[in-house]
Design a protein that fits this description.
By secondary structure, this protein is an alpha+beta fold. It folds into three domains: about 5-30 and about 45-100, Double Stranded RNA Binding Domain, CATH 3.30.160; about 115-150 and about 165-220, PmbA/TldD fold (2-Layer Sandwich); about 230-460, no CATH class. About 20% of the residues lie in helices and about 40% in strands. Strands 1, 2, 3, 4, 5, 6 and 7 form a seven-stranded mixed β-sheet that branches. A hairpin with a 2-residue loop joins β1 and β2. The radius of gyration is 24 Å and the shape is globular.
Length: about 475
């Protein structure tokens, strides 16, 4: 897919001919496969290829973006001319000298998905479906979705950077439905990463299916969750939904610069408890949000956002970094060639501490253990959030007691970060597709086992007894 360097230079020159401070071109070829199973049979097998290119021109605070799915020199020049009209100043001659940038991160893909017969992919899905159904007689319905993507990109910009990269991701998700005693409960689990078909080896997909089934059955046996203020332990296995939603988005530079983040103007201030370090890292091996280069062609790296409770910085793309006179952090991401890049998370986590996770649980007399987070809502302006608990258990006298259902967590992200008083030595990941500005991007997030001394728990049992 690599376009001739001269053509790329001509496109960028056309983009800046009427003025503008910066221009880039993003060329993409994406091959996808999806296999789904429902009602105990393969419902859909879908493969496809999508390709196109987008040209962006930045002039002051104005950004113009135009795209096409026809990748020819004449068409790209035409699209560049359209984008350039938003930055008209005066005609000028522009010359761009492009130099290729080599990756410093090895993604180490063992089995390319396009080398695997579709029959092998459907067999993995069928095996996961069978594993979930065999886990318990109360499992009545299972949905399994397998997907892989091979994305080839060429990115060039007016700074002279030229990047050619291949991204490979594979994912499997299982949703199990259990029924019994007049009620229906669901359990969800997913597996994914910057990996090839090797993701499915060693019974990994069957294990994911059994975990989804176990969670659904556990919810059947659960009792109504208590309501009130109590100590909450969030297990590492819960994944990093809390840090992603209640903290991560507020550290994306565009929201900060627009005054839509509770962290605006607080660089250098204590915003979390001592011992809390929050990191966004695009280079973690095999994680779902890992990239060698972001979607602007800048190398990804490890960005420390909060260090020992102190706010150190934000996640930048090129535009927001220019406004703050900072360096891009490799967080410029886009869903496809049809979208302009914006600052986005990659792999975001609270760094592990030194406490034994079992000791964190054992320190609680009466409280709630969160094993898996569900969906929720967050206001990035003030940090307020409400999250569902997909799997939770009461803690009594330092011991994990019975499962509860219907629990919610209500609080404020920065306040929770300041309250955390125990941090475990483990680290548990979850994956997902993060939505922002109408775009989706693959991410992972993680946290160790943490103790929050007091937070509002919503539930259906209002007896006041945890």
């Amino acid at each position: 897919m690599m376009l001739d360097r001269r053509v790329l230079g001509d496109v960028l020159a056309a983009a800046l001919r009427r003025g503008g401070d910066f221009a880039d071109i993003f060329v993409e070829n994406r091959a996808t496969t999806m296999v789904s199973c429902e009602e105990n049979r393969i419902e859909r097998v879908k493969t496809g290829i999508d390709s196109g290119a987008g040209v962006r021109v930045i002039s002051g605070d104005t950004t113009a973006y135009a795209y096409t799915n026809k990748i020819t020199a004449d068409e790209l020049i035409r699209v560049a001319d359209i984008a350039s009209r938003a930055a008209q100043v005066s005609e000028r001659d522009v010359s761009i000298d492009l130099k290729a940038v080599q990756p410093t991160v090895d993604l180490d893909i063992a089995v390319m998905p396009d080398a695997v017969p579709i029959e092998d992919k459907t067999a993995v899905v069928a095996a996961a479906d069978a594993a979930a159904r065999e886990a318990d007689a109360r499992i009545k319905q299972v949905m399994v979705v397998y997907g892989d993507v091979i994305q080839d990109v060429t990115i060039a910009n007016s700074l002279g950077r030229l990047v050619e990269d291949r991204r490979v991701r594979t994912r499997l998700a299982v949703n199990a439905v259990a029924a019994g005693d007049g009620q229906i409960q669901t359990g969800f689990e997913a597996l994914g990463g910057t990996q090839g078909f090797e993701l499915t080896k060693r019974d990994a997909c069957e294990a994911v299916a059994r975990e989804a089934a176990r969670r659904a059955v556990a919810a059947l046996d659960a009792k109504p969750a208590p309501a009130g203020r109590m100590t909450v332990v969030m297990a590492g296995a819960a994944g990093g939904t809390m840090v992603h939603e209640a903290c991560g988005h507020g550290l994306e530079a565009d929201l900060v610069q627009k005054g839509l983040s509770v962290y605006a103007g607080k660089r250098g201030e204590q915003v979390a408890a001592s011992g809390i370090t929050v990191v966004d890292d695009g280079t973690m091996p095999r994680r779902y949000g890992t990239l060698r280069f972001d979607d602007e062609g800048f190398p990804t790296g490890k960005t420390v956002l909060i260090a020992d409770g102190v706010l150190k910085g934000f996640m930048y793309d090129y535009l927001t970094a220019s406004r703050d006179k900072a360096d891009p952090t490799g967080n410029g991401r886009r869903e496809s060639f049809e979208h302009k890049p914006v600052p986005r998370m990659r792999n975001t986590y609270i760094a592990p501490g030194k406490e034994d996770p079992a000791a964190v649980i054992g320190s609680v007399k009466n409280g709630l253990l969160v094993k898996k987070m569900g969906g929720g809502q967050v206001n990035t302006v003030n940090g307020d959030f409400v999250f569902d608990v997909a799997e939770g258990y009461l803690i009594r006298d330092g011991k994990v007691s019975h499962a509860v259902r219907g629990a919610t967590l209500t609080g404020n992200g920065p306040e929770v970060l300041r309250q955390i008083d125990m941090v475990g030595s483990d680290l548990g990941f979850s994956i997902g597709t993060c939505g922002k500005d109408g775009q989706g991007a693959p991410v992972s997030d993680a946290q160790p086992t943490i103790r929050i001394p007091e937070i509002v728990v919503g539930g259906t049992d209002h007896s006041g007894r945890p």
